[in-house]
Design brief:
301 residues, alpha/beta, Stationary-phase Survival Protein Sure Homolog, Chain: A, nine-stranded mixed β-sheet, two-stranded antiparallel sheet, 23% strand
Length: 301
């Protein structure tokens, strides 16, 4: 299944402001040991969310030179939106931290253009997100959208999300962010070891990674790792009720379908890490391209 240009889940993230500021990026070492990567770290939950602060601490402790360039406020659900205004407010509240009053995509573009001006980072890491970005949720994810923005500018990127394909347990999901980042470090080590002096990933290819919440407290490691595709289902079903005053009340129901075999939902449901390769464009594979070509054969304006 082809990877589609993607965008984040909204309903699972309303409680994130309650958890902001649980760790300090400034407390980490300023200089990474030799061999570490230069990483632009972003997200869609906001620069002070627990997921990105955990990511900063773990990646820095692993020897990488990490700089946060992330939204000033929670931007969940903004997808790949970027550059919608003629000005942008940027704050620099701490060393190694930039907060952009815009979308996740705006943050990545600002980081690449200004913070990393003249020398692109080795990798853009987005997350870890509170809640999953699997199946149709990934199509609207700012976490995934910011990774797409990096790919569009030629920088390798991975999106990280923590959560099961269900309503999250607040404490367990936050606890599971640590094993999510422990896995991310192992993955980055593997990519770095196998890339040599080449880019970490094939040109134009990123990874959408979803780590399950394992154990009652969320602190356990996943049961395995699966290379997956994005499950085609859309589990969030909106319903509109006419209020008879020109407005409509919107409710959203979670209605999961049977998981596609080999998809990201199946893997997360089995307590495995789902690693889905993705591209930053809307192109289909060659078979679908050929089918459309045959449908258009002989058509004239």
């Amino acid at each position: 299944m082809r990877s589609r240009r993607v965008l984040p889940a909204t309903a699972l993230l309303l409680c994130m402001p309650l958890l902001a500021g649980t760790a300090s990026a400034a407390a980490a070492p300023a200089n990474a040991p030799a061999g570490g990567l230069r990483i632009l770290l972003t997200n869609d939950d906001g620069y002070n969310a627990p997921g990105i602060r955990t990511a900063f601490q773990v990646l820095t402790a692993a020897g990488h030179d990490v700089t946060i360039v992330a939204p000033l406020t929670n931007q969940s659900g903004t997808g790949t939106k970027m550059m919608s205004g003629t000005t942008v407010t940027v704050k620099h509240p701490e060393p190694k931290v930039w907060a952009v009053d815009g979308t996740p995509g705006d943050s990545v573009v600002f980081g690449l253009s200004e913070v990393f001006e003249g020398r692109a980072p080795d990798l853009v890491v987005s997350g870890t997100n509170f809640g999953p970005n699997v199946a149709g949720l990934a199509n609207h994810s700012g976490t995934v959208g910011s990774a797409v923005a990096a790919l569009e500018y030629g920088v390798p990127a991975i999106a990280l999300s923590t959560g099961d394909f269900a309503a999250p347990d607040l404490v367990a999901t936050v606890n599971a962010m640590r094993p999510t980042m422990d896995f991310a470090v192992k993955l980055i080590d593997r990519l770095q070891a196998r890339s040599g002096n080449k880019p970490l990933l094939p040109e134009g290819v990123g990874l959408n990674i979803n780590h399950p919440v394992v154990g009652a407290d969320g602190k356990s490691a996943a049961a395995g790792v699966a290379t997956t595709f994005q499950d085609p289902q859309q589990a969030l079903k909106p319903d509109f009720t006419d209020s008879r005053d020109g407005t409509w009340k919107v409710t959203v129901r979670f209605t999961p379908q049977p998981a596609a075999k080999g998809g990201d939902v199946e893997a997360v449901n089995a307590d495995k890490v789902a690693v889905s390769p993705m591209s930053a464009d809307w192109n289909t594979g060659p078979a679908e391209f050929a089918k459309v070509g045959s449908l258009l054969a002989g058509l004239r304006p």
